[in-house]
Specification:
The structure holds 2 protein chains of 2 kinds. Chain A is of the alpha/beta class. Chain A is built from 10 helices and 14 strands. Chain B is mainly alpha-helical. The radius of gyration of chain B is 32 Å and the shape is elongated. The chains are: A alpha/beta, B mainly alpha.
């Protein structure tokens, strides 16, 4: 049999008149970091909670490794909820040891794993501090260590990178990539699309509780209409391109316009028009960015 | 004096213990530095054979793990240790002080002007002993010198020529102080002596008369045989009231802490809600029982040591039944408090949430206080002794008053256990629904309407 798979099928959840999940289905294969994207209120947190049986689904199933998920399976999962939570007055190390034991580890191995993860995440010297004495960033690192302490087979992380400095993001990103390489199934939600693009092999995008796009980042980037990056000196708003049939300006950054071309548009015509507008210093085809994938999927 | 020393010793011992505990927390190993028995920690997540502690914790699974954490964190707090010492000190005071006050062998000097016949001399000393006062006789040269000593307070009273008595201050008939009692008995002894003299009886006859004791009185109504247990009843009740509320609040705060800090979502990803709830209730229950057991054992030992009358009659039985009912009361109320905690959002809602819960507790407490101090139980009170919310207060008092048979007691216990099981199921349903709802206080209606589906 192939790699293990976390499969979500037909998840539906209504809160009164609000539909949080509307028949959502997707899967997360082991060995990959999968980005879980969607605007605020799309149902990401509800989905992640559903994996841990923390919401009562109206319908739908969660399966792991080909069978409906059990409490014993979840014991081998790691979870970092959107709202961070640790006992404020407990010592960091003791807390992780306790969580390790709740996940089925012996006391000694839980303690060793806790120490090891704290070290790896750069908060080794804070093991004997109370949690509430830690800075926000360090609490976040401890929270990630809490999800990792029992070497889980599946990691479900709700916004693990929010509010971190670039060094912390690099460190945590590397940990997640390493975990996936070691065969772990990693699902992470984020609004930082550039980071997700760097970190994730695949993404799943949802809106209003429904799947709107999903696939490998490379495939999504290569698909869709052509992108053309054009820089015309002196024209920072890409005024020359607006209004041309079959051409739309996706974004302008640093004076370079990203144009989305319909199928029939001739790029040579565009080059001539650009040269007529001013001196062209950049003219190149590009791949679809994840932020464009996201925006176009929601459009 | 010795009692004060015993008390001081107990307090000092407790303080020392706390100090040692805190010091040993400072000693930390390498690798997993928060562990006292510092494991080496360089090996990563290598699974090792489970130690004895693991075996214990595994034996009752996740509930045991949760309970063990609860016990550890609960007993670690300075407030807990200080509170325990405070309770013990209060109990010690309640036991020792009345003993010290009542058995203090008062010593008084009594001035004698003129001669005092040997028979009257021994009668006066015996009269003093009958009111717990050791009397020494001090010969005075004349009445003037005696009055001077009397004013100076050197002597309690003066017997003049074995006929009259002079005191410094007039004593009213309603005065029940030791001094007044002494004065009355001595006046009595002197007048008896005069009467014997007038009747012309011999010294031997007078001695025989002086040895007379009051006749035995039999009443048609049965005597209140348990009156000696009343102080125990009252102290026990007060303690029961304080501890029950304290343990209930611990449960509520414990649940609320997990909800407010959001750690509960991390926990519930691996542990079922009912396990988390049961572990918390069990952990706090064990700490509560240990603390209450310590207090009761301490009270029994101390009362025995100083010879307090707290142990006479039905008192020990009542004390033990109070301990049992504290346990039963906690078992019943902890679920209510836990469910309430899961519905709260912030600590400032605590007051309004706990108030309705304390109404049955206060009702039980107050009616029990009235019954215990008046010594008789109304029918209403007897009914309360069978209702699980009020039984923890009413039943032990009823035991103290001798108003229950063993099967009535057992019936009340069984009722309480059954109600506790029902309450636990209800609370688990509410807890499961409410614990992950954040943002605002959860309305009761929502929880119950969902709990049925």
């Amino acid at each position: 049999m192939g790699v293990s798979l976390l499969e979500l099928t037909g998840l539906t959840r209504r809160f009164g008149s609000v539909v949080a999940l509307d028949g959502l289905s997707f899967s997360v294969p082991a060995g990959e970091v999968v980005g879980f994207l969607g605007p605020n209120g799309a149902g990401k947190t509800t989905t992640m909670r559903a994996i841990f049986d923390l919401v009562d689904l109206d319908s739908g199933t969660v399966a792991w490794d080909g069978h409906p998920i059990t409490a014993a399976d979840r014991r081998r999962f790691g979870y970092m909820p959107e709202e961070r939570g640790l006992y404020p007055s407990m010592l960091v190390g003791e807390q992780l040891e306790y969580l390790g034991k709740l996940h089925g580890m012996g006391a000694a191995s839980a303690a060793a794993a806790a120490a090891q993860w704290l070290e790896r995440l750069g908060v080794g010297e804070r093991a004997t501090s109370r949690v509430d004495a830690l800075s926000h960033g360090n609490q976040q690192r401890v929270q990630l260590a809490a999800a990792l302490v029992h070497s889980p087979e599946v990691l479900v992380l709700d916004e693990p990178l929010a509010g971190l400095d670039p060094t912390a993001i690099d460190a945590i990103g590397q940990v997640l990539v390493d975990q996936a390489a070691a065969g772990c199934c990693v699902l992470l939600s984020s609004h930082q699309l550039d980071l997700v693009e760097d970190l994730c092999e695949a993404v799943t995008i949802i809106d209003h509780g429904r799947l709107v796009a999903s696939g490998r980042v490379d495939d999504l980037a290569a698909s869709g209409r052509r992108r053309l990056v054009v820089r015309v000196e002196g024209d920072r708003t890409a005024a020359w391109a607006s209004g041309r049939p079959g051409v739309s300006v996706s974004e302008v950054s640093g004076g370079a316009a990203r144009l989305v071309l319909d199928d029939g548009v001739d790029s040579q015509d565009l080059l001539r028009a650009a040269m007529a507008a001013g001196s062209v210093t950049e003219f190149a085809f590009g791949r679809r960015r994840l932020s464009e994938v996201f925006r176009e999927a929601l459009a | 004096m010795t009692h004060a020393l015993v008390l001081l010793g107990v307090v000092a011992l407790a303080a020392l213990r706390i100090w040692f505990r805190r010091r040993s927390r400072g000693a930390r190993g390498r690798g997993a530095p928060w562990r006292r028995s510092g494991s080496s920690g360089q090996s990563g997540a290598r699974f090792r054979p489970a130690g004895p502690r693991d075996v214990f914790e595994r034996a009752i699974g996740d509930v045991g793990l949760v309970a063990a954490r609860e016990i550890r964190e609960r007993t670690r707090g300075r407030t807990f240790r200080f509170g325990t010492v405070l309770i013990l000190a209060a109990v010690a005071a309640a036991i020792v002080i009345p003993v010290v006050r009542s058995t203090k062998p008062g010593a008084e000097r009594i001035g004698v002007v003129g001669t005092l016949p040997a028979s009257l001399r021994s009668a006066v000393v015996a009269a003093g002993a009958s009111v717990h006062t050791r009397v020494t006789l001090a010969p005075e040269p004349d009445l003037t010198a005696a009055k001077r000593d009397l004013r100076a307070g050197a002597i309690a009273l003066v017997i003049v020529d074995a006929r009259t008595i002079v005191t410094a201050k007039a004593v009213t008939s309603s005065d029940t102080s030791a001094g007044a009692a002494l004065e009355r008995t001595i006046a009595n002894a002197v007048s008896l002596h005069l009467a014997f003299e007038a009747a012309g009886i011999t010294a031997a006859q007078a001695a025989a008369l002086a040895r007379s004791t009051p006749a035995r009185v039999t009443s048609l109504a049965p005597a209140p045989t348990h009156s000696a247990a009343r102080p125990t009843s009252l102290y026990g009740l007060i303690l029961l009231f304080i501890l029950l509320q304290q343990y209930g609040t611990w449960t509520l705060m414990g649940v609320l802490e997990e909800k407010a800090s959001r750690v509960v979502e991390v926990l519930l990803a691996t542990v079922r809600p009912v396990q988390l709830l049961a572990g918390k209730v069990l952990g706090i229950g064990i700490v509560a029982l240990a603390q209450a057991g310590l207090v009761v054992a301490f009270a029994l030992v101390l009362a025995k040591a100083v010879g307090s009358d707290l142990l006479t009659g039905a008192a020990p039985v009542e004390l033990l039944s109070e301990l049992l009912w504290l346990l039963l009361g906690y078992a019943f109320y902890c679920w209510v408090y836990a469910a309430t905690g899961s519905m709260a959002e912030r600590q400032d809602q605590l007051q309004s949430l706990t108030f309705p819960l304390s109404i049955p507790i206060i009702l039980g407490y107050v009616t029990a206080l009235v019954a215990a101090s008046s010594g008789n139980a109304s029918t209403f009170f007897k009914v309360l002794a069978y209702l699980p919310p009020t039984a923890p207060f009413a039943m032990p008092v009823l035991v103290g008053l001798g108003g229950v048979t063993w099967w009535e007691f057992v019936a009340s216990v069984l009722l309480s256990v059954a109600a506790t099981v029902a309450m636990a199921r209800l609370a688990a349903g509410v807890y499961r629904r409410a614990i992950l709802r954040t943002g605002r206080r959860v309305a009761l209606r929502e929880v119950f309407s969902k709990a049925r589906t």
